[in-house]
Specification:
This protein is an all-alpha fold and 142 residues long. It contains eight helices and no strands. Helices cover 57% and strands 0% of the residues. The mean pLDDT is 86.
Length: 142
C-alpha cells in the first residue's frame, strides 16, 4: 500500500493542475463575463469582456490583475450562469473560484483584494435562504 500525500499537498497540486488546464483551454472570448449577472455590480465594470478575462488570467498566473478583473472577481457569486456560456468547456465558475482565492492572498501570493469583515453576513445568508426555501424546507432548516 503506497503512502498518500497529505491533503494540503494534494489540494495545492489540484489547484495548480486546474489553473494550468484553465489557462490552456480558455480563449479569453469573454462570453462568461458577458452573461454574468454580477458584472454590472463591479466597482470597475468594463465593456471589453476579453480584457477582463485576460486580467483574471493574470491573477491566476500570479501577476497583478486589472481593476476591471479584480472588480469582477470581487463581486462574483459563482452562480454558474457562465458555465453553459463557455464554448471551450473551461468551467468559468472554477476559474473565478481560483481567481478569488488567489486575489485574496491564497496560494502564497500577495493579496490583491481586501478581505471583507462582515458581521451581518450570516444574517443576510439566512434572509436570502428564506427567499429560496418553501415553508416545509424552512421548517427543516430552522
Amino acid at each position: 500500500m503506497s503512502a498518500r500525500a497529505p491533503i494540503g499537498q494534494r489540494l495545492k497540486e489540484f489547484e495548480e493542475r486546474e489553473i494550468e488546464r484553465i489557462l490552456g483551454a480558455c480563449t479569453r472570448c469573454g462570453k462568461c463575463y458577458e452573461v454574468c449577472p454580477m458584472a454590472q455590480y463591479s466597482k470597475a465594470p468594463a465593456s471589453d469582456s476579453k480584457a477582463v478575462v485576460g486580467g483574471v488570467h493574470a491573477v491566476l498566473r500570479g501577476a497583478a490583475g486589472t481593476p476591471e478583473a479584480l472588480g469582477w472577481i470581487g463581486v462574483c457569486t459563482r452562480s454558474g450562469v457562465c458555465v453553459p456560456a463557455c464554448p471551450e468547456n473551461v468551467d468559468p465558475k472554477m476559474m473565478m473560484r481560483l481567481a478569488r482565492m488567489t486575489a485574496l492572498g491564497g496560494r502564497g501570493l500577495p493579496a490583491q483584494l481586501p478581505v471583507k469583515e462582515d458581521p451581518d453576513y450570516f444574517d443576510r445568508v439566512r434572509a436570502f435562504a428564506r427567499l429560496q426555501l418553501s415553508d416545509d424546507e424552512l421548517k427543516d432548516w430552522t
